[in-house]
Amino acid sequence: MTEKAYIKGSAFPPLVDGKLRLYSMRLCPYAQRTRIMLAHKKIPYETVNINLKEKPEWFLEKNPLGMVPVLEHDGKIVYESAICNEYLEDIHKQNSVTPTDPYRRARDKMLLEMNSKFTTAYYKALRGLKGEDANSLIEAVHASLVPLEKAIGERGNFYGGDKPSMLDFLLYPHYERIEGIRTGFHADFMPMDKLPKLNAWVSRMQTVPAVKETMFDAQTHIDFYKSYGSGKTDYDIGL
Amino acid sequence: MTEKAYIKGSAFPPLVDGKLRLYSMRLCPYAQRTRIMLAHKKIPYETVNINLKEKPEWFLEKNPLGMVPVLEHDGKIVYESAICNEYLEDIHKQNSVTPTDPYRRARDKMLLEMNSKFTTAYYKALRGLKGEDANSLIEAVHASLVPLEKAIGERGNFYGGDKPSMLDFLLYPHYERIEGIRTGFHADFMPMDKLPKLNAWVSRMQTVPAVKETMFDAQTHIDFYKSYGSGKTDYDIGL
């Protein structure tokens, strides 16, 4: 098994009986959601990284949508990050992070839906950073974050209150990348004066052991986004 | 309480203590998902229909996303159809429709994700029915339905096997509208020769009591879509 990304034409890495496999991409925020969950629950697994621009043929047989993360275990395939995390929570009961109250569970899912407005604005702004509309795109990111700032203010240290919950793990990865965008692209997606509580939450999340295990530093995110922007994405950055 | 849609400027209909309220729109397929769930579980509720083009100010305070369905009960607000249905399943245990097996639950959520490719293609084709690309847009709908046809073929009478499950309720509403599109707009989104099992499933769903309670006939769907296309949506059609 290699950390390097498997590419179109590469041979399928044989499955090991009984071992859980994660198809991932090292810098993908959605795959990171599931990597945090696996780390938090201390579930043993192996990683197969995928070149998402030139996907191996066998990867599309695992997930016809062609995206990571994908879990494979004993012939069972699960994809979509939130579904992967719920599945892991269901089959590995230790260190549970799902609220027991039905209304809190519903509210967390509504906040995740709100967060998808942010991720849409995030990618739109990233693509438009060199354009004339850059400022208005960045302001749209700020606006999309207001409900998240309000919610963390009401809830405490984490969206889960005293401790991180499933929602914290699902939200966190995109926010990790904002420091790199700030320093490497001179664009502030999360200004301290407008969104102080979200900024504090990101710093706090970075002290959580499961998050620390999965993090990359700001410079690696900058380098990755620059390689992506150049059209020659370096999936093996830093290896 | 009136069945007619509440519009911008209208007064807020007072809440009744202890009574569950559904904010809906009579012809909305997403609201129908939750109407089926409420009917299946025989949960008492009142309906407040909303004019989605000119929304009452108080509606946006309930759901900042401005969409139906929304549930309100004892000061609690839940929106997004799949989240509403999960919440109802959690707080009303009778007539459960959620699979108990974690892998089946994960697979159902993956199929719902696949179905969102169909709904995207569905609305794109509806908007493009008069354009030059109509045929290729309709063919994209057929292609998006292949995974759903395959899945129902493997599962039996319903996506839940012998009986309808949560997934059947979430999928059904858009398919109800296809007969109206077929006869009223001369466009077949679900040809019998290409998708025989899905066609049979729709007919079978229409014998389910909870579905029957929420259905509109093909002509009403045609009239509604025509009013929508004219720019003057008739939210009170047939009243």
Mean model confidence by pLDDT of chain A: 97
- How many structural domains does the protein architecture of chain A include? 2
* Helix coverage percent of chain A: 40-55%
Give the number of DSSP strands of chain A.
Answer: 4
* Approximate shape of chain A: globular
**Oligomeric category:** homodimer
CATH class division of the largest domain in chain A: Mainly Alpha
Total of helices of chain A = 10
Largest sheet properties of chain A: 4 strands, mixed
Radius of gyration of chain A: 18 Å
Low-confidence stretches of chain A: none
In short:
Chain A has 239 residues and is of the alpha+beta class.
3D structure, described in words:
The structure is a homodimer of 239-residue chains. The first copy, chain A, is an alpha+beta fold and 239 residues long. Chain A has 2 domains: 104 residues, 3-Layer(aba) Sandwich (Glutaredoxin), CATH 3.40.30; 106 residues, Up-down Bundle (Glutathione S-transferase Yfyf (Class Pi), Chain A, domain 2). Chain A contains 10 helices and 4 strands. Chain A is globular and about 50 Å long. The model of chain A has no long low-confidence stretch (mean pLDDT 97). The interface between A and B is medium-sized, with 22 and 22 residues. Chains A, B: One of its GO terms (cellular component) is cytoplasm.
